[in-house]
């Protein structure tokens, strides 16, 4: 194999590395985040260096293939996610009473990790949030400001450490919101997996800014409310109940868009049967990012 042919092995080996990581993540063997892949960037330098070093040997291509495979295997073996659980050691419960509150504006921002939002029925609290995090390197902020009978809730985490080759704190959030109060919800995504089960909430507005990762959103069947979703990098799955009366606008990005057949095209929109002039209609606006969008 000539020198150009040997150097063409560098990129296939890198693709194999990325593919192995993603496959192990999908199979549940490896607790993987996108930053895990970025932390392996020095592998590129090692492979290029091996290519230069072995370019003058008689069996350079074979030696390069063997050495490159060994480097990838070693990198995977040393990856922190291969040796430790993603669930941080420290767990903390945050909550706030709902007494005297008539409506709430909730803002949630999680950097790296997992986020699950669901309903909090039959509770005297406005919200309850259980957070697993690295206490040594992560600051969790849970603030509530009140103006009359309106509460502004801010839940976020800040990391004091991240390097391409170092361990990055990974959080896990489980947030439950009251079903007895109208709620405006804003979620800013980082690099994480997100699942929003909002079906039982009295939702007034949803503002979702996606980051990197997989996002699943289950919306309530009754409005009126608006949902604005800014696409990031990854897969978005949006589900509306069968009896919902909704109008949907999708601004396509770089990726496939699949909209269920019960949403009929109407100019720039997709609408369900009975959308107009329903007083409980739902408005959904999706701006596609890089990845797939599925609406059902």
Task: Give a structural overview.
By secondary structure, this protein is of the alpha/beta class. The protein folds into 2 domains: 3-83; 90-295. 21% of the residues lie in helices and 41% in strands. The protein contains 6 helices and 19 strands. It has helices at residues 3-7, 10-26, 34-38, 42-54, 60-78, 80-83; strands spanning 90-97, 103-109, 112-120, 125-133, 138-147, 150-159, 171-178, 182-188, 191-197, 202-209, 215-218, 225-230, 236-239, 246-251, 257-259, 264-266, 269-271, 282-287, 293-295. The strands form 2 sheets. Strands 5-6-2-8-10-12-18-14-17-16 form a 10-stranded mixed beta sheet, with no helix packed on it. The chain has a 9-stranded mixed beta sheet with strand order 1-4-7-3-9-11-13-19-15, with no helix packed on it. Strand 16 (264-266) and strand 17 form a beta hairpin. It is flat. It starts with a helix and ends with a strand.
What layout of secondary structure does this protein have?
Layout: H1 3-7, H2 10-26, H3 34-38, H4 42-54, H5 60-78, H6 80-83, E1 90-97, E2 103-109, E3 112-120, E4 125-133, E5 138-147, E6 150-159, E7 171-178, E8 182-188, E9 191-197, E10 202-209, E11 215-218, E12 225-230, E13 236-239, E14 246-251, E15 257-259, E16 264-266, E17 269-271, E18 282-287, E19 293-295
Parallel strand pairs: 2-6, 2-8, 3-7, 3-9, 8-10, 9-11, 10-12, 11-13, 12-18, 13-19, 14-18, 15-19
Antiparallel strand pairs: 1-4, 4-7, 5-6, 14-17, 16-17
